[in-house]
Write a structure and sequence with these properties.
Blueprint: E1 5-8, H1 19-27, E2 30-33, E3 37-41, H2 44-48, E4 59-62, H3 65-77, E5 87-90, H4 93-98, E6 109-112, H5 122-125, E7 133-138, H6 147-151, E8 156-166, E9 179-182, H7 185-194, E10 204-208, H8 210-218, E11 225-227, H9 235-248
Parallel strand pairs: 1-2, 1-9, 4-5, 4-7, 5-6, 7-8, 9-10, 10-11
Antiparallel strand pairs: 3-8
Helix pairs in contact: 1-9, 7-8
Length: 249
């Protein structure tokens, strides 16, 4: 199996130190970064249909930078002034620091976890149980993810502020890849939408996470690389392991 051109369905890394570029140099492959999906914010008119008044909340939980962007965008479009007393709970320190794009960091009450998991914010949220929380989410978020908030009887409201849509390919855009790398079920949906008659043949498909792997198989496709695994804890490690074994053959 001769793999020379790999499509990574994510944006190009901002740092040239990315492991993807190390793999490209080591194995002489071409890495093309081209997302199959993209995120777009809900128009304020559509958001208002949820009948959520953001001025009613005393705290907000952020699980992604996209949530931060759309929260402040909708506040601005709705002409809502955010009080300095607002408390911000972020699932990572990176998201917390990203708030500096919109607020004066040192004047606000900001809390963050380290793992990116909402459940790991619970010890901090439990110390502020009287707050009324707003949770900005996407249209594909899983309500089961907030079970920890339900168990703690936290008062919160899920607010859909952005959605994931297919990033369509143009008719003249080449699709001549030897390997396709997916990171979400929505990426698989976009593949089948863009290329309904596509035949996998010898093209390698790699996926990250159990849900993405399930989506590959449900689409009737062959899954050649599944990450994470005991041998490859990340997608880059899984790709490198595949190329190394393929090279030996």
């Amino acid at each position: 199996m001769n793999v020379k051109k790999i499509l990574i369905s994510q944006p190009r890394p901002t740092s040239e130190k990315s492991p993807y570029f190390d793999i490209a140099r080591e194995y002489g492959v071409e890495m093309i970064f081209r997302p199959f999906i993209k995120v777009e914010g809900l128009p304020s008119r559509e958001f208002r249909q949820q009948k959520i008044n953001m001025a009613d909340f005393s705290a907000v939980i952020f699980t992604a930078k996209t949530a931060v962007d759309n929260f402040f965008r909708l506040c601005e479009e709705s002409r809502i002034s955010i009080p300095e007393t607002m408390k911000y709970f972020c699932t990572t320190e990176s998201i917390a620091l990203y708030l500096q794009k919109y607020i004066i960091f040192r004047k606000r009450k900001i809390f963050s976890a380290q793992t990116g998991k909402l459940a790991d914010l619970i010890p901090l949220i439990s110390k502020h149980k009287k707050e009324n929380y707003l949770l900005p989410v996407s249209d594909i978020s899983n309500p089961a993810d907030t079970k920890a908030l339900d168990d703690l009887k936290i008062k919160y409201t899920r607010a859909v502020m952005y959605r994931t849509v297919s990033n369509d390919f143009t008719p003249d855009e080449p699709f001549d890849y030897d390997m396709l790398v997916f990171f979400s079920p929505q990426g698989i949906e976009s593949l089948t939408k863009n290329f309904p008659d596509w035949n996998q043949g010898d093209i390698v498909i790699a996926s990250l996470g159990a849900n993405t792997a399930r989506a590959v198989r449900d689409a009737g496709l062959r899954l050649d690389i599944e990450a994470p695994s005991p041998q490859a804890p990340s997608m880059t490690a899984a790709i490198e392991l595949f190329l190394k074994n393929n090279k030996k053959k």
